[in-house]
Amino acid sequence: MIEARHLVKRFRDKKRGSVCAVDGVSFSCRPGEIYGLLGANGAGKTTTLRMLATILAPSEGTAIVAGYDVAKDPQMVRSRVGFLSTATALYGRLSAQEMVEYFGRLHGLDESKLRRRIDEIFARLEMNDFRDRRCDKLSTGMKQKVSIARTLVHNPSVMIFDEPTVGLDVMAARTIAGFIRECRDHGKTVVFSTHVMSEVEKLCDHIGIIHDGKLLAEGTLPDLRARFGIHDLEDLFVKVVES
Amino acid sequence: MSLRNIGIVYRKELIDSLRDRRTVVSMIVVPLLVMPLLTIGMGILSLTLVGLAMREIPKVMILGGEDSPHVREELQQLKDVRIVPANSDFVEEISNKQIRAAVEIPVGFEAKLAAGESSTVRIYLYQGELRSGFGADRLQRFFRELRDRTVREHLEARQLPESLMRPFDIVEKNVAPPEKVGGAILGGLVPYFVILLCLTGAMYPAMDLTAGEKERGTIETILCSPVSRTHLVLGKFLMVLTASIATAVLAIASMAVSFGAGKKMLFGLTHGAVDTSLQITITGKAVVSIFFVVLPLAVFFSAALLALSLFAKSFKEAQSYISPLMITVVLPAVAALLPGVELSPALALVPVLNTSLVSKEIITGTFHWGLIALIFLSSSVYAGVAIAVAVKLFQREDVLFRT
Question: How does pLDDT run along chain B (403 residues), one tens digit per residue?
């Protein structure tokens, strides 16, 4: 379960002074649901998700993630969250297995449990062929699988994806989309951000349209279509943002 | 504080760093190979150059002395100089290295010698130029012998004993142990190298583990894990410290081996006539003591480098922050080499300089335990502050996500 309560994030910028990147964002997402944050570049999607993953601390407001407050118990939140973004790169000099092992250990898994978990994930994601290959020698698709394995190793109940398909080819993007669906089917709470309309249409149970740090509209896709009287998601998005 | 988590981060950083060619080069290859190659290479080169200069028969010029044919004749017969015809441009010729030295014999030199009158022989040389020095030395030796011979003849003629020439001898006796003699000359150099290598060894990993992570985008990956940021930075810090100490230890070991080999070679090349100032004996007690005084400095360097490069957005930016730091470390380390700079309670509080000075003393066999304790303590305080700053910076979002 994720419950964002009036999240605010301000940064200090040398040129612009105090900048409000996220301005009072509130929404909730239940287990077995996918919540999509839809917004243009610079809308505040990444900052919102980073606050949910406790990488950034909120300036105001808070969020309850997997039963813990992000401001009060960030470590408890992190141990229950899997976070994947285009920015979460791999350690190139570690092998695929070492990379996943490292994160398993950081999540406190003991060696025998870690071994079982890695065997299970590597078999499921068909990663055994490149298990011992260094991450910097892997193809983009293989790297994506290692990243997925890294986020899954501690079996988190909440998954947060920040524009996970940016820069990926069709096949790699499909792998990610399939993985996001699988997470929902396994009863996980899933939040993901994107600016790709087709991904939202295909994957999301709930949508939040974010612009200039504010959540302007939210609901299921049929709800939003009915509310604004527009079927095409792109047109709908433009109307919400421009209004 | 979870040692397990710090250990996990440290282990990963160690494996990662040991697979990085640049770290391996700066941590292992440079101290193990480059240092001895430099020491031995420079030694061989300078010995070869000195040997060549010594083997050269210097061209010298005799100016004047037409009324002193015997002296001129004797000079002409010297085997280890070649006399060239006199020329008024002798100064230019010495400067241009066409000749190495010139000697000016005064008018009526032989007559004055016979009469027991004083006169002045001038030797022209290009001071600081090795070969010119050798040429001038040869001429000086000739005239010194001539002077002694003349005095002896005058004494004999007056039936006076030769001992009048030297009424007494002066003999210097060294009471300092051999390590003091060597230490005074080379002692300053060893800590200077150790301090510098502690810094250079830590530089690359410090940048790679912080600014490098930002540049590669792995910083966000690691911040998603439940390990606290304090544990992350401490694990990273331990890796940087390992590199710093490993570089210094490997360099000392390889320097010791190459110094030993170099000394043997020197014996071979100079047929055993080695200056006692080159004999350096460093005791086990000194090595252990130096390790303990350098340790807090290595901690200080590692934490300071980590904090500085953490602030940088990229590897390149980190390099531009660290280069000036090199100079601020080299200066106090070099200051300890200057003659007259001696350890005092006030200087014991100056970072880097204190360690450099105390190490110099330890190598020469002097142990001021009070000052050693003060230096260990003050360096530990600086190290503690540097670690605290690094830990604090790692908590700050504006530093981790600086754009």
Answer: 689 999 999 999 999 999 988 888 888 888 888 767 777 777 788 888 888 888 888 999 999 989 999 999 999 888 888 999 888 889 999 999 899 999 999 999 999 988 888 899 999 999 888 889 999 999 999 999 999 999 998 899 888 888 888 888 899 887 766 656 555 556 667 778 888 888 988 999 999 999 999 998 898 889 989 999 999 999 999 999 999 999 888 887 787 777 667 666 656 655 554 454 455 556 777 778 888 888 999 999 999 999 999 999 898 999 999 988 888 888 888 888 787 788 888 888 888 889 888 888 887 777 888 989 999 999 999 999 999 999 999 999 888 887 6
Contacts of A81 in chain B (CB under 8 A): 224
Give the span between the Cα atoms of A164 and A89, in whole angstroms.
12
Domain that holds residue B61: 53-164
- Across the interface, whether the CB atoms of B8 and A91 are under 8 A apart is answered no
Which of B120, B141, B164 is the last residue in one of the domains?
B164
The 3-state secondary structure of B37-75, one letter per residue = HHHHHHHHHHHHHHHHHHHCCCEEEEEECCCCHHHHHHH
Of the three residues B129, B164, B199, the one that is the final residue of a domain is: B164
If you measure CA to CA, which chain B residue comes closest to A159? Answer: B224
Q: Is residue B24 part of a domain?
A: yes
Residue B371, number of CB atoms within 10 A of its CB: 19
Same domain, B77 and B36: no
Q: Give the residue numbers in B contacting A (CB under 8 Å), as ranges.
A: 5, 8-9, 12, 15-16, 19-20, 216-218, 220-221, 223-228, 397-398, 401
Q: Quick one: CA torsion of B88, B89, B93, B98, rounded to 10 degrees?
A: -60
Structural domain boundaries in chain A: 2-80+157-242, 89-155
Tokens of B402: 């600086």
CA distances from B134 to B72, B99, B350 (A): 20, 12, 44
Please tell me whether residues B280 and B343 are part of one structural domain. yes
Q: Which CATH number fits domain A2-80+157-242: 3.40.50.300, 3.20.20.450, 3.30.300.90, 2.60.40.1180?
A: 3.40.50.300
